[in-house]
Amino acid sequence: MDFPSPKSNIEKLQTYKPNFGKSKINNLIRLSANESALGVSLGVTDALKSLTNSLNRYPPQVSDELISAISKRYSLNKKKIILGNGSDELISILAQTFLNSDDEAIYTEFGFLQFPQAISIVGAKGVIAKDVKFTANVDNILSKITKKTKLIFLANPNNPTGSFIPKEEVIRLHKSIPANILLIYDAAYSEFVVNTDYIDGSELVDKFENIIMLRTFSKLHGLASLRLGWGYASEKIIQNLMKVRGPFSVNTAAIVAGIAALEDLEFQKKSVQHNLKWKLWFEKKFQLLNLEFQPSIANFFLIKFPNEAKYNAQKAESFLASNGILVRGMKVYGLSNYLRISIGNEEENIKFINKLKIFLEN
Ligand SMILES: Cc1ncc(COP(=O)(O)O)c(C=O)c1O
Questions:
Q1: C-alpha 146 to ligand 1 mean position (Å)
Q2: Which residues are within 8 A (CB) of 242 and not within 5 positions of it... i.e. 6 or more apart?
């Protein structure tokens, strides 16, 4: 029987599954999605209260107010900023804007899963560059470039590994790629980074046409539910992306909340300090529990479990879930011995480590 069939590449594709974990327990501790440990700024909550009198109105296609606030907060050129419905949307429209079906796009072995998803949706070919020690490797990325390469996706810091490549390696990568290849530099977790050898990519965008920096309000600013991300690139790239982006994809609540979040420097500072403090605490605890972990510059850790029937990662994930704690299984990345855990608030972190201890000691 005839039926409306989707394009063959879509038919073959699996739906992206965020996998926040499951548990029957109420009052869950969710350490599975790298969300803000401290919630949101009170300024955001207050700003959202004023929303009710404009719910019948479409949002502006481009919010000059939010763009100005981003430009002021991060000292960037207003004309080079694009807003999106989460940086996920920007990743998708970058693939739609730049990839023909016979083009190739490179992404890293343990890179963010939305990259291959966006590439497959447009029917282009994704090419994997192997990591070295769970870290993106510039030589491996460069070795994958062919005449068909149009895009290179690099998350720095990377999710789920928490690793990063330093400034000089980012510059070497950018210098070595031909001018017709666009480097998509996803700096979603950059606000948590304090390492002096890290760059968020904006200085390269100010000098070159073939790089876009992606950022999000979902992590440090705690606005994951409102879906707000932004990109920074040449005006020409922004203009082309705007042809593809939905006209009203950034809603009024996100705009209002985004502006308020940027104003609250205290909340941002507190969140970064909280993250640094608990990152050190977790490192010590993992060492005491004899668990291997990847050093992380972001707000989460990738930890390795023994490949033993009793203490493996799946068993740990189920045990934690049965105790109301959700963590992220890593099977989809081919890392079945690993779990990713986000840094939560004080109470969540302590409960998580206590339960993990019980699991490993029984
Ligand atoms: C590396 C990376 N990029 C982008 C995103 C998506 O962020 P958003 O919530 O803005 O779509 C995430 C979310 O987990 C991420 O880890």
A1: 28
A2: 62, 82
Q: What is the whole-number distance in angstroms between the Cα of residue 296 and the centre of ligand 1?
A: 16
Report CA-CA distances (Å) from 354 to 16, 83, 287, 358.
32, 41, 14, 6
The answer to whether 301 and 340 are in contact (CB under 8 A) is: yes
Q: Which atom of ligand 1 is nearest to the CA of 229?
A: 10
Ligand 1 neighbourhood includes 90 CB (under 6 angstroms): no
Q: Is the pLDDT of residue 1 over 70?
A: no
Give the chain's domains with CATH numbers: 19-40+266-361 (3.90.1150.10), 42-263 (3.40.640.10)
Task: Return the SS3 of 239.
Answer: helix
pLDDT band at 243 (very low <50, low <70, confident <90, very high): very high
CB 229 within 8 A of CB 83: yes
239 Cβ neighbours under 8 A, 6+ residues apart: none
Q: Hey, what amino acid is at 31? A: L
Half-sphere exposure of residue 355: CA atoms within 13 angstroms, side-chain side: 20
Q: How far apart are CA 70 and CA 251, in angstroms?
A: 16
Contacts of 248 (CB under 8 A, 6+ apart): 58, 59, 61
From ligand 1's centre to the CA of 311, what distance in Å? 30
Task: Establish whether residue 122 lines the binding site of ligand 1, counting it when its CB lies within 6 angstroms of any ligand atom.
Answer: no
Model confidence at 228: pLDDT above 80 = yes
Dig out the tokens for 37 from the structure: 């440990």
Residue 299 vs residues 43, 50, 189, 277: alpha-carbon distances, Å? 22, 31, 8, 11
Q: Would you say the CB of residue 104 lies under 6 angstroms from ligand 1?
A: no
* Dist. CA 310 → ligand 1 center (Å): 33
This prediction has a pTM of: 0.96
Regarding beta strands 229-232 and 211-216, do their DSSP bridges make them parallel or antiparallel, or are they unpaired?
antiparallel
Comparing 5-14, 184-193, 298-307, which segment has the lowest mean pLDDT?
Answer: 5-14
In this model, does residue 88 exceed pLDDT 90? yes
Give the pLDDT confidence of 48-74 residue by residue, as tens digits: 998 888 899 999 999 999 999 999 999
Q: Are 31 and 342 in contact (CB under 8 A)?
A: yes
